[in-house]
Each structure stands twice: as C-alpha cells, then as structure tokens.
From TrEMBL:
Taxonomic lineage from the root: Bacteria, Pseudomonadati, Bacteroidota, Cytophagia, Cytophagales
Gene source species: Fulvivirga lutea
Gene Ontology process terms (BP): proteolysis
First and last residue of the signal peptide: 1-17
Pfam families documented for this protein: Peptidase_S9
Name of the protein: S9 family peptidase
Molecular functions (GO terms): serine-type endopeptidase activity
InterPro entries to which the protein is assigned, alphabetical: AB_hydrolase_fold, Peptidase_S9_cat
Keyword terms, alphabetized: Hydrolase, Signal
Domain Peptidase S9 prolyl oligopeptidase catalytic, chain residue ranges per copy: 701-900
Disordered: region residues: 155-174
Domain of life: Bacteria
Length: 929
C-alpha cells in the first residue's frame, strides 16, 4: 500500500508539473536561438541562446551532439578558418549592469565585455578582460585582433601619507576620436603585439597582414595609415601626417591597400579627399585620384562616402565620385537664414521623402574604379545612371546600370514595382548602352556578368539581354503556367515567384512558378524545362543557397526546400545535375536556417512545429539520422501545451477558405471555450509554426492564450478589389460561424484581434456586426479619405499608391470612386459600433499616421462607446522596447480576460491613467466591482 501511495504521489506531481499555466513572467526566461554556425571543417557547431530578458549563453558542440563548452553570457562568436579556435565576447552579468545603472555609476566604471578564446584541441578557455571588440581574418589562420577598453582609473594609495606623491605624466586618453589600443595576438603561440590609438583597421580575407589608422602617440608614432606585417610584427608607414583618413581597404591577398586622405588642416567646407593606393614594392601610398584627375568628371570629387573595395584578383579598385556639394554661406547669421521648403508639383519626390532620404542624398556617390594594372580610372556611374552593379566578385566584363529617376514621381500613386531604364556597361571603357527603357520590374546581372535579366510585370515574362551581342530574349513564352502570383488579389500586377539564380558559366537561369523550378536557356536556344515537377503533388520546391561566397549555382548537388501546400509539411530534397529531386526528409514541421560547412558535408538546420521549438539539428547531405544539438526550452514540458489543426469552410458566396485553430491542452469538446479570432491575411500555411513564449509586438501569442484556456482562430482572408472591408467581413464572420457550429465555442465570448491591415479590418467588421464581445485593433486606418492624402512618415512617401494599387485594394483614385473610400472607412459607421474596442496606436508610427487611431477614438468617445487607446510614446508602428511589448501583452490579456472570461477590469480600463501619472502608475491592478 505504501508503494501504491508513493506511485500515486509521483504521478500526481508529474501531472501538475506538465499542466503549469503560463504567466507574463515566463516571457523573460523563454529562449530564442539568436545565431548558429558550423566550422569550416564541419567538426564544430556553435549557437547562442538568449532569453527574453537577462543573460544569454554560448554553446560549442560537435555534430554528434557532444557538448564541448558552455559559456554563460557568451555571444558574437567567430570560428577561425582552420577550425582550431572559437573566439567570442563575454558580457557582464545583466543584473549587475542594471544595479549599477540604478546607482548612476559613471560609464568608465561600468563592467565591460571580456574576450573568450577557446582552443578546441586543448579544450582550454582563455579570458581577456575589458575588450571592446575583435576581428578574425575570414580565410587565414593563426591571428586575432582585438581592441582594449580604457583602463580603469588607478585607485589612490593612502597607505603612506608621508610619501610625496609624484604628479602623473599626462597621457593621451583612448576614445572614439583618439582611437583604442589594438592587440594583435598569435592564436598558436599566444604572443601579442599592441598598436596604440587605432581608430580603424581592415583585415585581408586571405592574409594575416592588414591596414590601420592611428591618431598617433608622440614623436615615435605619428598619425597616419600603416601596413602591418603579422609574420615580422612590423608596421610600415604608408602616409604619415596629420589629416583625415577614411575608407580603409585591403586586397584579399593582403598585397595592396587603399584609403582616402584629406591633409588640408584648414576648415574648408568642401573637403577634397584624395584616393591613395599602395602595393608591395612601393615605399608609400601614392595619390591616384583626386579632383581634376583624368577619368573623373569635371569639377567632381573623390567621395568620402564611397566605399573602397578591391575585386577578387585585385586588378580593380572600386571607389566613389560625386559632384561638389552645395555649402552654406558662413557669413550669414542664424536669423538671416531662410528655412523654407518649396513644394513644387514638378518635383519627382515629395519634400517629406527628400527629408527622410536627406542623409543618403548628401552621401550619394557614383561608382568608378582604378585599373591597378593599366593604372587608369574608368567612371561607371553618373547622374543619369546612378546605380551600377558588378558581378563575379568585381571581375565581370560588363556591369548593370539602372535608373528609376525618370519615373520617380509616379511612385506616389503607382507604388511598386518600380520602373527602370537599364543599361549594359562595358567595364573596360565605361560605355553604357541602353538595354531596356521603361521596364516595369527590378533588373539583375547574371552571376558572371554575361547577361542582364528582368521579370516584366506587365506580361509576366522573364527576359535576358546578352551584353556582348546586344540582343534581347524572351525566355518563358513557352511555359504553360504563370510565373507570377496565381492568387493575386491586389489591384496591381501580380508579384513574380522569383528566381533561384544562374548556374556556373551563366549556362542556365533557374526561375520559379508557384510550385516548380524551370531551367531556362539565356538565349532561348532550348525550350524551358521543368526540373522538379511538383505541381501534380502540390509540392513547392525552392533552392537553398548554402555557399553565399559563390555567386553561381553548382548543379551537381542542389538542396531544395520543399513545402506541401495540402498538408503544410516541409522538408528537403536533393537534386543532382537536374535529375528528378529525391526527397531526403519531410515531416509535419517547419524547416529553416539550413547551413553547410564550407569544406565538409556537415549540415545544420532548425526544425519545429507547434509542439516543439526550432532546435538546431546536425546531419549531412543524406539527411539520415539527424542529431538534435540544442535544447533551448526544456521547461516547456512542464506546461500545458495546446494543439493546432487546419480547418476548412466555405463562405456564403462559395469561396473555399482555410484557417488554423489552436486548442487548449486537455481539450474537452463538450466544454464551451472563449475564442479570440486573430487574422491579417493568409495564415493557414503557418500550420507548423512554433509560438515561443514571448510578448509579440502586435498580435496575440496563440500558444500563450491556448495555455490559459482560450481557443484561438486564424482564418484566411481573401479580397475583392474595391471591397476590402466587406471581403474581410465575409471571410471572418463565416469562419467564426463555422467555429461556433463545432459546438465547443461560447458564441457570447468571442473576441477579435489584429494589427495594421488586420486592425483596419477589425475596425470595419465591428461597424457591421455585433457578434463579437470585444475587439483589439492596432494601428488602424479608420478614414480612407484622410489616409489617402496622408504620408507614410517612415519613408516620406505619399499613401496614395496603397489605395490605388496596394494593400488597401480600392483600385481607384479618391475622385474616381469616392463612394468606395466612404464605404470602406469605419469612421463613417462609428455610430453602428457596439463592440468594446481597445486601440493601439503609437505617436511615432511611420506606417499608419497615428491620427487615424485618434479619429476613430474621438468619434467613438463622442458616441460614448466603450473605447480605449494605448499610445506607447515615441514608439513606431508597434512597441519595440521589451518592457513596452510586455506591458502591451499584459493589458491586452486583461482586456480579453474581462470580456471573455468575466474577470474584473484593471484600473486603467475602469478609471484610466491621468497624464500626471504616466510612467508612474501602470494601473494594472484589478478593480473590485
């Protein structure tokens, strides 16, 4: 009997442990995997865990799952090219930092990051205190560079008061302007060399030598740019004088360097930077380009903002040029300067857009290059052709030039895709040839630069332009299916499905339809070939790019991500030399973040579903017997985790729809559950997404609410152009009625929740029906008439295109169909609203002007309707700060609990929070009625 009682107690404990209820405090401790990587030899896997709040951790494992090292607070790891070392930062304890900040501790006395160096062979961890940052060569070995923080102030020695104190010698302080001390460490021997007052450096990709700038120490170390020889531990001065130095660059082999210098010590407003170049055999860096240099346009300057970089072989040094900027008359007093914007109807951009792009405009440069072999300068970009792309790691013979400037004004009402004029540019001469005018769609350059290519949105075809011959080709006219969105419901051209890319030698171009990959001949000498044939089984194939350093696709072995539209199952397939793909793995799960070791067949990926977190798994190209590497959230097993299922129904007008239903754990079909209907547009394809326990910025967390006793329903919504509001009403109400008919939903306890486009739809739906007990809507558009003439403040763009051709789906101007703008605007039906409404609209919203929320709020308030609005001051389209996201989730939860679970109102709902108490009183306490 004693053993039976003990067994029952154990069973009871486990049952309780597995049925814990989630709280908002759990947001803080649920982990995300911030990053994962594989060593080049495939023998190490490194990943980082980060909880919602507090200290994260770094983990180093082998592909067989053996744990090698756990580092509390480790982050930002890099693996050496020879896979012998893992280097990372170690953060101070979060709690300690918070406590010191509360005490107003001076910044220089705050704890700083440390550096961790893990020797894989010796299994030894070396720690170095007070490190700002570090750098490793990408494809070279044995060297580590790291910056030291400023030393802590020395403590006074009060042990001998009779001893005369010596005055400390004044020394130059390390700082962002003066630079910091850079330590060069041999990873193999541990020897170190320290360079002082370094403001910038650039490591070579395939060498341990590098270039750096120092602000100087004294007469022994002058300001300037130096070349560091790692083997000999020596620094060679390349330009040693006071001045301004920018854009340090070094060739991949470390044998050439370049930088910009301005040695003018006057306060001239226009800075005339010089481009300097050095290679082995020269004593110092020589000026190769400046204002007036042959090849640079007349009166143009070498741009201080144009990034310098060498082509892979080092034969080309790319840099930027720009016209001299307009400057202010310095003799004017502040009150004499007229600050007036002139809005001219002929301007291609609104002033709001110009203001948002002002910094980019001031820093705009035009691509040029220095031929390091022929020692000449070729200008490629111009005001007429502002954007230039080079292929094949800067080695291609031709470049793509493009300009949307002639069509820039039309963006205000046409929106996207943009229109372009595109050019084929002979890189050797800089000569540009017009390849296509008024192209509706974004162009590209093939992997090796032999072709320009584009998708023409107007006729949904892929096209190419052969740079050498100047001939254009339509590549997809013989394909029997469309290569653009088959389900497009926007008043606009359908979006393309995209392209996988070009194979080696620019031999083939691979593009997508809804399901398949098509192999195209770039000159249409052969018919397009469907190489996957997934349509018959409703399987979508998409190429996984596992080598970001290679521009071209190697067809010998291609890994394809697969998605079954019917079951929503995902996986990976292997294709060899364009033969039929073979499914390697497929599960009722979501697969993501596939990575491959550079020099081995080791793969990692993350897989999860509603029940399981996206933990890291290791495998090889067979995908057989994958090994789980991480266990990010073992605590999940202690909680009552719900389920998700796919449902289907038909609207009254015979439109078939799908949706997702999240049910509580231990679901009882005989009970009546409160339900939250959450939607945006289409969500049924997300059947296998995992909801981690974190405060979402704009939507209910389905797993969190299911754990707390709610059913959550995500219906798909499809639209009729001109009637977005009625379309949403039709889909959402019919789906909700379907759910009520299942028998387990309390029809008197159903709420709505959505944000932005979802928020708009909710604000409309509650003007048409009283079937919902309450609703939360974020960043709503309540008045399409005022919104049509508004600004997207994040970009400065006019909002017109959104209604004429975009998401709002009116499909006409305000003056062409004013009735549609009125019919779809909730504010005109505010008197019909009987549903308690919680609005979220922040005053720094750059997507939807927050006065849209205000308009709806004041209208409902005028009508004495139950309405609340949350404004997280200074936040954009949604809360971004952790505490604000957490607070929003608490308030939204309290709102739904009150109306759907009959819990008391919190103070902020019952009484509000006056402006005098904002930031002081949260008002979260429940009010007894």
């Amino acid at each position: 009997m004693r053993f039976l009682v003990a067994g029952l107690l154990i069973w009871s404990f486990n049952a309780v442990a597995q049925n814990k209820t989630l709280t908002h405090d759990d947001f803080d401790r649920w982990n995300q995997i911030n990053s994962s990587q594989i060593s080049p030899d495939g023998e190490l896997i490194v990943y980082e865990l980060q909880p919602g709040k507090g200290d994260g951790s770094l983990h180093i494992t082998s592909p067989n799952g053996k744990n090698l090292l756990d580092v509390p607070r480790g982050e930002g790891a890099k693996i050496s090219w020879d896979s012998k070392y893992v280097v990372f930062k170690i953060k101070p304890q979060h709690a300690d930092v918070i406590e010191l900040r509360r005490k107003k501790t001076d910044e220089d006395k705050m704890p700083k990051d440390s550096l961790g160096i893990y020797d894989v062979a010796k299994k030894e961890l070396t720690k170095i205190a007070r490190v700002r940052g570090f750098d490793l060569p990408k494809e070279s070995t044995g060297m580590l560079a790291y910056y030291l923080e400023q030393e802590l102030p020395a403590k006074d020695d009060k042990s001998d008061t009779t001893k005369k104190k010596e005055e400390p010698k004044p020394s130059k302080a390390v700082s962002k302007d003066n630079g910091f001390h850079l330590v060069i460490r041999s990873l193999n021997s541990g020897t170190r060399d320290t360079l002082e007052y370094i403001t910038d450096h650039q490591l070579a990709k395939r060498s341990n030598n590098f270039i750096y700038h120092t602000s100087g120490k004294d007469s022994t170390i002058l300001e300037g740019v130096y070349y560091y020889d790692f083997a000999n531990k020596t620094s060679r001065p390349l330009c040693r004088t006071k001045g301004k130095y920018k854009q340090l660059a070094i060739a991949e082999d470390g044998l050439q360097v370049a930088f910009l210098s301005d040695l003018d010590t006057t306060k001239a407003l226009i800075r005339d930077f010089e481009l300097r170049h050095w290679n082995m055999g020269k004593d110092s860096a020589m000026v190769i380009a400046k204002k007036g240099t042959e090849g640079i346009p007349s009166d143009w300057l070498v741009s201080e903002h144009g990034k310098l970089n060498f082509s892979e072989s080092g034969s080309r040094l790319f840099f930027g040029t720009a016209p001299a900027p307009a400057v202010q008359d310095t003799t004017l007093l502040p009150e004499e300067i007229i600050q007036v914007e002139v809005w001219n109807y002929k301007n291609s951009r609104l002033h709001t857009q110009q203001n948002m792009e002002l910094d980019d405009d001031k820093k705009k440069s035009y691509l040029a290059y220095f031929d390091t072999l022929g020692e000449k300068i070729i200008q490629l970009g111009s005001k007429e052709i502002p954007d230039v792309s080079i292929a094949n790691h800067g080695e291609s013979e031709y470049a793509l030039g493009s300009s949307y400037l002639p069509y820039l004004k039309n963006i205000s009402w046409d929106g996207f895709p943009l229109r372009y004029d595109i050019y084929s540019i002979d890189v050797a001469t800089g000569k540009a040839t017009l390849a296509k005018k008024d192209l509706l769609g974004e162009p590209g350059l093939s992997a090796e630069g032999n072709y320009l290519y584009w998708f023409n949105a107007a006729d949904t075809t892929w096209n190419s332009y052969h740079n050498e011959s100047g001939k254009s080709f339509v590549l997809t006219k013989d394909i029997p299916v469309t290569l653009a969105d088959e389900e497009n419901d926007y008043p606009n051209y359908p979006d393309q499905y995209g392209a996988a890319g070009w194979t080696k030698g620019d031999q083939h171009f691979l593009v997508y339809d809804r399901f398949d990959i098509w192999k195209l001949d770039p000159q249409s000498n052969a018919h397009p070939v469907n190489i996957t044939n997934g349509r018959s089984n409703q399987i979508e194939y998409r190429f996984e790019d596992l080598d970001k350093d290679e521009a071209a696709i190697d067809p010998s072995t291609m890994v394809l991500h697969t998605f079954n539209e019917s079951t929503k199952d995902e996986g990976y397939a292997i294709m060899k030399n364009f033969e039929a793909p073979k499914q390697a793995i497929q599960k009722a799960a979501k697969f993501t973040n596939l990575k491959k070791a550079k020099n081995a067949e080791t793969l990692t990926y993350q897989m999860g579903n509603h029940q399981t977190f996206y933990d890291v798994r290791a495998t090889n190209l067979s995908f057989k017997k994958p090994i789980q590497i991480s266990d990010a959230n073992p605590q999940q097993k202690d909680y009552a985790w719900g389920t998700v299922e796919l449902v289907s129904w038909t609207t009254p007008d015979s439109l078939p729809l799908q949706g997702l239903v999240y049910k509580p754990a231990n679901f009882d079909p005989n009970k009546k559950y409160p339900m939250i209907v959450n939607f945006y547009r289409l969500s049924s394809d997300d059947l296998h997404d995992h909801w981690g326990v974190f405060p979402h910025r704009s939507t209910v967390n389905a797993a969190f609410y299911a754990n707390r006793g709610y059913v959550v329903f995500n219906p798909d919504v499809r639209y009729e152009v001109g009637n977005p509001g009625k379309s949403a009403l039709n889909c959402v109400v019919s789906g909700t009625k379907y759910m009520i008919d299942q028998g387990y939903v309390d029809e008197d306890k159903i709420g709505l929740q959505g944000h932005s486009w979802g928020g708009y739809q909710i604000s409309y739906i509650i003007t048409q029906t009283d079937m919902f007990a309450c609703a939360e809507a974020g960043a709503v558009v309540s008045n399409m008439i005022s919104a049509y003439g508004g600004i997207r403040w994040w970009t400065g763009l006019s909002r017109m295109f959104q209604y004429e051709h975009g998401q709002s789906r009116i499909g006409a101007t305000l003056w062409e169909k004013p009735d549609l703008y009125i019919e779809n605007s909730p504010i005109f039906y505010a008197d019909k609203v009987n549903t308690p409404l919680l609005l979220l609209h922040n005053d720094a919203d750059g997507h939807v002007p927050w006065y849209q929320g205000i308009e709806y709020y004041v209208a409902l308030r005028r009508l004495n309707k139950p309405v609340w609005m949350l404004n997280y001051k200074g936040e954009p389209h949604w809360p971004t700060k952790w505490e604000n996201k957490r607070d929003f989730n608490i308030r939204m939860n309290q709102f739904f609990d009150h109306y759907l679970m009959d819990k008391p109102m919190p103070q902020w709902m019952a009484e509000g929070i006056p402006a005098t108490e904002v930031g002081i009183n949260k008002g979260l306490e429940l009010v007894k009625e």
